[in-house]
What does this fold into?
Amino acid sequence: MGAQDRLYQQFADRFEADGDGYIFRNNLQAAGMRTTTAERDQFVVEYKRSLRWLTWGSAALILPPLLGVLVAASMMGINLPSWIGFLVSAPVLAAFVISSRWIWNAPVRALRGRLPVTQERSKEDARRLAFRRMTLGQLGSAVLLEAIVFWRLAATHNLLAGWNWLWLAAAVAFLVLIAVQAVRKWRAG
It folds into this structure.
């Protein structure tokens, strides 16, 4: 499952099946509002479509100025700093983040006038559900990502010299955090 598919699934998981309809919760702890199956399906389809348009639109807005800066710098013989790509992309990326939050909250806006049909969940119940939804693949990906970052650091730094030992300490702390999360997931069922 790709990153975008996981995002679609997280959006769809905000709707919990309930009889012939669904209960929508803005977050794991929020009170629930009843929706029909058709409404839920429409929200999910609309979210996928809007996010796809936003992703491709953002790419289309980032690439021309970025390529323009690179071509202009190349023609003038200028060596650009590595952060210039981020500087050129930053306004579009900021707009992307704001727009994706707007798209994510479409059901909240549409269902604003409805009365909740379920109570808010306790923090403990919400935490337990979050651990149930967490996958072992996500934990494994975190371990793999740490291994890659650590390997890259070890290739460029002597991790036993000077203050570089802090990288080792951070890596161990991150592994302990992942292990704790795995145990908490196992306990949650």
Remarks:
- The first strand starts at residue 15 and ends at 18.
- The CA atoms of residues 162 and 168 lie 12 Å apart.
- The mean pLDDT is 88.
- Strands lie at 15-18, 21-24, 33-36.
